[in-house]
Every structure is written in structure tokens, then in C-alpha cells.
Design brief:
There is one protein chain. Helices cover 35% and strands 25% of the residues. By secondary structure, the chain is α/β, with parallel strands linked by helices. The protein has a domain at 110-178. The strands form 2 sheets. A 6-stranded mixed beta sheet has the order 6-7-8-3-9-10, with helices on both faces. It has a 4-stranded antiparallel beta sheet with strand order 2-1-4-5, with helices on one face. Helix 3 (116-127) crosses helix 4 and helix 4 packs across helix 5 (163-175). The termini are far apart. The mean pLDDT is 90. Bound molecules: adenosine-5'-triphosphate and magnesium ion. Magnesium ion binds next to helix 1.
């Protein structure tokens, strides 16, 4: 086991889109992510959230260029992996296995002509070649149950599932190989509020069960306040404030954080009760 409780250390990480004129999408971003932590990443459209996530997962393609900084992944086995130096083959092994991603708009990225069971089993075929067909089916059924879907849905096509169920399937896929890090980019915005909450509560429980960390990206600051341990507020490529959800809510220090909080009318009324585990203040 690793000595440290830190899973990921990002420092001075910078990404530029090499277009004319160049766009400095991520500017010297630094943060640590603890094991088992949910870190919320908030900020307005275009501030660089997805670019940062793709940078960490080594998913960026031209014209994006990582222009500086490091992202170190402290593997549970004690090894430190410098994500910037991975070869294409190492990136493929790292992703899914150690770190997975639920993409923005992911629920529409399932293959419409392939049954759910086959799509889940394919993750195992690709990454766990030693597994038998029966083992893949059993593992796929177990995954569905973990995210709250009946195993008989393995035989369903995506269009036969609700949006919430499709989203759960994507999360099941991301969990398939028991990664230590899961980055979720606006995973639930297309869902109604109740379904969103249910899914997020489930993720919060699962991370205790499996011990993974989550970087959760969304515009929805009230939602982040409820589910995150800490929140990073991003603006124009920089993290302008990073603190516990409680401090971001009760004692925001950066003017932009204050502005962001005040842009959600539901947050500016009666204070209290928004934060997980916090009693509503009288
Ligand atoms: N392929 C690209 N080429 C040039 N610029 C890009 C490219 N992709 C993103 N950008 C720019 O990089 C900046 C950051 O974009 P990014 O998609 O990371 O923002 P975001 O915070 O995820 O936004 P949203 O909340 O809308 O998803 C924006 O100014 C965007 O226009
Ligand atoms: Mg984005």
C-alpha cells in the first residue's frame, strides 16, 4: 500500500490549443486529490474544465498541447506514475484500469445496435483477456446490480432504457476494472433532478465501498455543494479557489466564487442544509 493518502498531484499544469490566435485553456493549475475524495470542479462554460480532465487522462488531441506542469498518479501499489511521460500503450493500460472517465453527454454514447450486456462484456474482453465468456457475463451482471439496474437488462438495447438507466450503464462501464480515479464530466445534466441525486448518492456510497476518488465536473454548484468533499472553482483556465464544500459555501474568499454562488438563487435564500451531513441552521 502507498504511504500517502494522495492519489493525484497536479502542479502547474497548462494546456494551450495551438490555433490562431492560440487559446490558453488551462493555466498553471495545481491541486491534490485524496484517496476516496470527491472533488467538485465548477466554473462557467469555456473555463477549461473538460480540457483539464482530458489532460489528466491523456485524452487530448491536436491542436491541444500540454505546455507545462506535471500530473503524478500515486498508484495504490506504491508506484508513482508521471502521466505526462506515458507511451501510447501505457496510456491505454492506464485508462479504464487505473482511471476512467464518464464523458460529457455520455449517456448518448452507447452503441444503439448493441445489447447492454455485450457493451459491458467488451470492456472485459479488451482489458482482461484471460476471462472466460461466462466470467464476463457474470461480472457484467454484477456491475449492473452495483449501479442499481436489474441484471436482466443485459439483454436490452440502449433505446429500451431510460436516460437515467443509460447513465448508470456508463458509470458501470467506468467502474468495470475497479479504477482508483473516476472523472465524471457533466455526467447527469440531461437527467431530472431526482434521478441525478439518486445516481450521485450511489456514487458517493460506491466510492467508500471501492475506495476510488472522483473528480466531478458540472455547472451545477448547488449540486457540487451537496456531493463534494472539496470544490475547485475554475475561471478562465485557472483555479481561483479550492476549499472544502463548507468553506466555499459559508466563507467564499474569491470574488468570482461569491459571484458564482449568488448566480444560484436557491443558494442565496435561507442558508444551511445544502451541505451533506450538515444540519439545517435555525
Ligand atoms: N479543439 C479546440 N480548439 C480550439 N479551442 C478549443 C478547442 N477545444 C476547446 N477549446 C477552447 O478551450 C477553452 C476551454 O474549453 P473547455 O471545453 O475545456 O471548457 P469547459 O469548461 O469544459 O466548458 P463547458 O462547461 O461548456 O463544457 C474554451 O475557450 C474553448 O473554446
Ligand atoms: Mg466541458
Amino acid at each position: 500500500m502507498s504511504e500517502t493518502s494522495t492519489l493525484l498531484s497536479v502542479s502547474d499544469f497548462s494546456v494551450t490549443y495551438d490555433v490562431d490566435p492560440p487559446v490558453q485553456a488551462v493555466k498553471r493549475v495545481s491541486f491534490d486529490l485524496d484517496r476516496g475524495e470527491i472533488l467538485g470542479l465548477a466554473g462557467e462554460s469555456g473555463c477549461g474544465k473538460t480540457t483539464l480532465a482530458y489532460g489528466i487522462q491523456r485524452l487530448l488531441k491536436a491542436p491541444a498541447v500540454i505546455t507545462g506542469g506535471t500530473a503524478l498518479f500515486h498508484d495504490a501499489d506504491g508506484e508513482t506514475i508521471d502521466l505526462g511521460t506515458l507511451s501510447v500503450g501505457q496510456i491505454r493500460a492506464f485508462r479504464w484500469d487505473k482511471s476512467s472517465m464518464v464523458f460529457q453527454g455520455a449517456m448518448n454514447s452507447l452503441n444503439p445496435v448493441m445489447k447492454i450486456g455485450k457493451q459491458l462484456a467488451d470492456v472485459f474482453s479488451a482489458h482482461r483477456p484471460g476471462m472466460s465468456r461466462a466470467e464476463r457475463t457474470a461480472a457484467s451482471a454484477e456491475l449492473l446490480q452495483i449501479v442499481g439496474i436489474d441484471a436482466n437488462r443485459l439483454k436490452s438495447y440502449p433505446h429500451e432504457l431510460s436516460g437515467g438507466m443509460r447513465q448508470r450503464v456508463m458509470i458501470a462501464m467506468a467502474l468495470a476494472l475497479k479504477p482508483q480515479l473516476m472523472i465524471m464530466d457533466e455526467p447527469t445534466t440531461a437527467l431530472d433532478v431526482l434521478v441525478q441525486r439518486e445516481i450521485l448518492e450511489q456514487i458517493s456510497e460506491l466510492r467508500h465501498q471501492f475506495g476510488f476518488s472522483v473528480i466531478f465536473i458540472t455547472h451545477d454548484l448547488p449540486l457540487l455543494l451537496e456531493i463534494s468533499d472539496r470544490i475547485a472553482v475554475m475561471r478562465a483556465g485557472e483555479i481561483v479557489e479550492l476549499d472544502t464544500a463548507s468553506n466555499i459555501y459559508h466563507h467564499p474568499t474569491h470574488p468570482y466564487t461569491q459571484k458564482l454562488l449568488s448566480s444560484f438563487p436557491s443558494l442565496t435564500g435561507e442558508r444551511g442544509g445544502f451541505l451533506r451531513g450538515e444540519e439545517k441552521k435555525a
